[in-house]
Amino acid sequence: MSLPDWSLPGFDLDRFVRETLAEDLGECLPDGGRDVTSESVIPAEARFSGVMDSRDPIRVAGLPVAAAFFRALDPEMEIAILVEEGAAVAPGTDLMRLTGNARAMLTAERSALNTVQHLSGIATMVAEYVAAMDNPDCTLLDTRKTIPGLRLLEKYAVRMGGGSNHRMGLWDAAMIKDNHVLVAGSVGEAVRRAVDAGVSEIICEVDRIDQIEPALEAGATRLLLDNMEPPTLREAVSLVAGRVPTEASGGIALDTIRAKAATGVDYVSVGRLTQSAPAADIGLDFTPL
Fold first, then answer.
1. Tens of pLDDT along 78-117?
2. Cα–Cα distance between 108 and 4 in angstroms, integer?
3. What is the DSSP string of 104-169?
4. I want to staple 87 with a disulfide (CB 3.0 to 4.6 A). Which of 18, 83, 256, 289 is the partner?
5. pTM value?
6. Average pLDDT estimate for 271-289
C-alpha cells in the first residue's frame, strides 16, 4: 500500500503539522528554530531508510498524519503505509517504510511517533472495550474528555477502534446536566427551555428514576442514565419503553461494561477512551544508506 489520500472534516492537517513541528523546534524562541542535534551530527546530504513497527498487539490509527510530518520536511521522501487505518496488527508488524533525507527523518520522528502512538493507543483501548461489551445491539461512545486541540484526531481514533462519536462539541447537541438543572429549577424546566430555543437534539442526564418522565414529557430526545447500576438501568430502560434512545454513562470500566450494555441501553459512553488511553508501543528504526 502506498501513501493513501487522507483527510478529516474540520481538521487542518497542514496547520497541525506546522504548529507541532514549530513547538518541537522552538520557533519564535531565542536561538530556536532548528534541530541542534541533527544539524551538528548528521551531514546535510545523508540519507536513511526507516521502518515503523508495532511492538505490541494494537489497533492502528494515525499513520497518514505521521507520514505528513516527514513529507513536510522532505517533500521527496519515499513513504509507504503498509496497513489500513483501523487494522488490528500483531507485535512486530511493519506499519510504514520510509526513505529520504536523514535530518528530516530525525527531526520529524518524535512528532510523528507521538501522534501515531497516542491515536493508536486510543483505538486499541476502544477495541478492548468493544470486545468486552460483546453486544452488537449497543454502541460504544466517547465523550468530550479530550486533550485541547486534539479532539477531531482523538474522535477519529475512536472510530478506528470500532467505537462511535458522541456529540463533537458544545454546538451540535444540547446536553442538560446537573448544573443546568440547578439553574433552571428542574429537569423538565431545563428541557423545556432547550425546546423553546429550537434545539433539535436534546440529551438530558438523569441520575434518578423519578426524573425520567419529566424529561420525556418536556421533549428530551435522548436520556443519559448517569451512574446507575444494572438493576436500575433495566428499570429505566423499561420505563422509557423505546420512546427515546438511552445511554449508560459514569464509572464504566472493562469489567462492568458488559453488564451495563446488557440492560437494554442503546449506548454506553466512556470518557477514559480519550482521557486515559496509554500510548501504543510503536517504534521507528533507521538504517543509513
1. 999 999 999 999 999 999 999 999 999 999 999 999 999 9
2. 19
3. HHHHHHHHHHHHHHHHHHHHHHHHHHHHHH--TTSEEE--S---TT-HHHHHHHHHHTT-B---SS
4. 83
5. 0.96
6. 96
